[in-house]
């Protein structure tokens, strides 16, 4: 089957505008006015500390935020999926957009063979016969680099390592040729060498299939190596977005700069660990103005009165700060 991804890499497969997620009584804003695009064949990293709203953003994009209020526009290859009825949405999930999670062991069904889990997905979404679905599942297990795909097909999750299970999850996610893959910290539960193998695999699949990938991560190393563009999130809002080279050469938001400064410099033995002072604020008690102001060395009274709007500095690049860093110092 031909991938349905557009061949023009500039086409936005995902276009999100003003996405907002709140608790049912609207007292807590978990995701606040988020706007981003992911192009075909592009990996956008959504970067931020724990608790800043990355996972909630990914669940909102999949329309899986049961019980919470969600508003804003979500467009998948030109089609509005924010208002799509749930029945149609469940056909889009897995078929047009797919997601992989942190812990593959818990995402897989422990009492079904992994091959059967994949073939059930392709039978449901693509209407293949049992035999064709099995063949497709074995081909997918091979594509994600599992050495003995026929044997793997009949294995149960507990018979495979964590890295193998994540490859199975990726095979299942790409089984129906989605145009968008959302990967929520897919390597966090894996050891370092396996992390690299899984990230390399996602990179290869992105290029080969032309999928857009939204990569949720707090790992700057992953961002620097694999992402094409980066969106930095803090306390539910995007505070900076840029292509990866620009972001690493001039991190304009003081929060982005703080994250970069927190990376240890292995070549400088005298380099001490730096940590951004303070912690991410509780969403139920956000300070007025810019949420980062209490931790920011550049903040002044302006910053505690209003949230700074977007200052753009190139295509798809912006920073939300009254005192952005102008150049690397
Ligand atoms: N149903 C809910 N009601 C209120 N607050 C919630 C709800 N669900 C999540 N939150 C809060 O929303 C914030 C964002 O959570 P989220 O899991 O999206 O963060 P994250 O950036 O993905 O963190 P991590 O990297 O640890 O997964 C957290 O402070 C969390 O406590």
Automatic annotation (TrEMBL):
Native organism: Gluconobacter albidus
Membrane topology classification: Peripheral membrane protein
Family under the similarity heading: Belongs to the ABC transporter superfamily.
Location of this chain's protein in the cell: Cell inner membrane
GO MF: ATP binding; ATP hydrolysis activity
Matches recorded under SMART domains: AAA
Residues in ABC transporter domain copies: 11-260
InterPro entries the record matches: AAA+_ATPase, ABC_Ni/Peptide_Import, ABC_transporter-like_ATP-bd, ABC_transporter-like_CS, Oligopep_ABC_C, P-loop_NTPase
Name listed for the protein in its UniProt record: Peptide ABC transporter ATP-binding protein
Keyword Glycoprotein appears in the UniProt entry: no
Domain of life: Bacteria
